[in-house]
Design brief:
Strand content: 5-15%
Radius of gyration: 19 Å
Keywords: Lyase, Schiff base
Distance between the termini: 38 Å
CATH architecture: Alpha-Beta Barrel
Shape: globular
Number of strands: 10
CATH topology: TIM Barrel
CATH superfamily: Aldolase class I
Largest sheet: 8 strands, parallel
Pfam families: DeoC
Strand order of the largest sheet: 9-8-7-6-5-4-3-10
Family: Belongs to the DeoC/FbaB aldolase family. DeoC type 2 subfamily.
Order of helices and strands: EEHHHHEHEHEHEHHEHEHEHEH
Number of helices: 13
Structural class: alpha/beta
CATH class: Alpha Beta
Organism: Streptomyces clavifer
Number of domains: 1
InterPro entries: Aldolase_TIM, DeoC, DeoC/FbaB/LacD_aldolase
């Protein structure tokens, strides 16, 4: 049975090609050699496979199952400067009971908010089984001193966050200071305590697929419980191709270590058709073990409404308009 992500102390036990992962992270030079020694990404082949898997057709009972599974995987999100306690409580109520007209609808996986709203979300979700996720580390830009980022994490965990979504220092990563990024993830992981850690790469800013593969391995080596595509705050967020690449990374990491890591595409996934395409990617790339909200999530706000409308159509044979679902 796969375990959760490695702590820094366990990393020494993981081996790749006879060289321990601890050796790979012993210095900036060693980490650079390891990451740049990963196989290069065939961009044309990656995009072609993602496009091909996106053409798979799912009908009837399989579609109904996929819609419910997708609902259960959503991190229902509000990350706006105008967020209020009332808005967060309303979002929490929707996460627990997405469709008031149909109590068979599954609950979402989590509600994702800023740290100052984590206590409000925790109180609203108490006893529901829906997790509280909180962005941290100076989200979304990550431009703050490490002590400020760690204080951000501590505050969110103390307020009741079950999960922390951190952003990496893209400037450090793109300038090749991989050890700085690695050590920052380690430090954040240590502050998370019981909370699971999702590491956001902001793939739209990493420029190349090779960089996304390197960031994926860097995050996993540092102890991420999830690797996440994006903040949802830039022009290019989750795509089938970059998510496929990250799914390959977690699959390969588990093959070599026995440790299973989750994946969270975020930003730009708005329709049931989109969500089902991503679930096909999961099944065909990483496998059925990842078809569970403990290992796969959607970072989304508008996706839930479309899933609910499609669910209603399957149930009643009639397509309900947007007025039949609550506006977040």
């Amino acid at each position: 049975m796969p375990t959760t992500a490695p702590s820094p102390k366990r990393s020494a036990a993981f081996e790749q090609g006879g060289a321990s992962f601890a050796d790979a992270t012993a210095s900036d030079g060693a980490l650079r050699r390891f990451l740049h020694g990963l196989p290069g990404v065939d961009a044309v082949g990656l995009e072609a496979r993602a496009a091909s898997l996106g053409t798979r057709s799912i009908k009837t009972t399989a579609k109904a199952y996929a819609i419910d599974l997708a609902i259960s995987m959503i991190d229902l999100t509000t990350l706006e400067g105008a967020d209020t306690p009332g808005k967060v409580r309303a979002l929490a109520a929707k996460a627990v009971n997405p469709d008031p007209t149909d109590r068979t609808s599954p609950r979402t996986a989590a509600v994702c908010v800023y740290p100052d709203m984590a206590a409000t979300a925790a109180a609203a979700l108490a006893g529901s089984g829906v997790k509280v996720a909180s962005v941290a580390t100076a989200f979304p830009a990550g431009r703050a001193a490490l002590d400020v980022k760690l204080a951000d994490v501590r505050d969110a965990v103390a307020a009741g966050a079950d999960e922390i979504d951190m952003v990496i220092d893209r400037g450090a990563f793109l300038s090749g200071r991989y050890l700085k990024v690695y050590e920052e993830i380690l430090a954040v992981k240590a502050e998370c305590g019981r909370a699971r850690l999702k590491v956001i790469f902001e793939t739209g800013e990493l420029s190349t697929y090779d960089n996304i593969r390197r960031a994926s391995w860097l995050g996993m080596l540092a102890g991420a419980d999830f690797i996440k595509t994006s903040t949802g705050k830039v022009a290019v967020n989750a795509t089938p191709a970059n998510t496929l690449l990250m799914l390959e990374a977690v699959r390969d990491f588990r093959e070599q270590t026995g440790v299973q890591i989750g994946v969270k595409p975020a930003g730009g996934i708005r329709t049931s058709k989109d969500a089902i395409k991503f679930l096909v990617l999961v099944n065909e790339t990483a496998g059925e073990d990842w078809l569970d909200n403990h290992w796969f999530r959607f970072g989304a706000s508008s996706l839930l409404n479309d899933l609910l409308m499609q669910r209603q159509k399957l149930s009643t044979g009639r397509y309900s308009g947007p007025d039949y679902v609550t506006v977040d």
